[in-house]
Amino acid sequence: MSSQSITVRVPGTSANCGPGFDSIGLACTIYNDLELTLLKEPGLSITVHGEGEENIPCDKRNIVWRSVRYLLGKAGRDKEYRGAVIRMRNHVPLSRGLGSSATAIVAGLKAANVLIGNRFSRRELLQFATEIEGHPDNVAPAIFGGFTVSTVTDGRVECFSFMPKSRLRLVVAVPDFPLSTRKARSVLPAQVPMKDAVRNIGKAAMMVAALCRGNDRFLHHVFDDALHQPYRARLIPGMYDVFAAARKAGALGASLSGAGPCLIAYTLERRHCEEAVGKAMQDMFHRHGVRARIFTLDLDSRGAHIVNKNNH
Fold it and tell me: Where is the protein situated, by its record's location annotation (predicted)?
């Protein structure tokens, strides 16, 4: 058995953040923990506690294990370490739009990287995670924390991460039904009107500028979207009514979290309206026949990090 195990903690994430479709993401204070022990001999032991424990595969299909193997292959160490003991403790709901697959990918990459001596930088881990996930908007905030703006040019990922000067809190309504990213992608059109694209560019740019400067008065209309939410609305009963209820209760705005079905409302910490916003969202969902859990979260500033490192 390997002489060491590592435990890493990775935040859940929300992608798009309103108008930043496939480019803007944030990390929030809900976490998955992974304990990884690399083995010289073949063999795989995977245990899952918490969210997803009944349907996350505990064999070679497991995304944590696949990510570990990916990193070991990149480092040329895959023949040295042929097995693993993986223990997952999950708080991030599955298939809800809070980046559960991204947390698993980043956890596997980060833990394996530490155990082989931090061969790769966080920028390289971002590249690997994007290659596994297919897009950077969830894996980037999972790695770096805070808000992230990501672009891909000729296959190379670049990410700008920042903590906003505006003190935000996040109220997340988690419906009691899952929604696969594949299904949510399938309803999107191949082309969108020019006016919708222009509108989103303006709002996304305004949002980043206002957050960086801490100019809260520009945040009241920036969380709207015209590129994906109108097409996904039919998959989430009462979506726009829940948005309106959140705003009426004091939120700056609300949006789909990733591909949904989670809805996320953005509030200013100084307003102390999170409880009212959460109740309004939950009640409106209930009126549309949907039960929803409410999480009130902060922005995570650390991203994926080591919790402890143990010698056996």
Answer: Cytoplasm
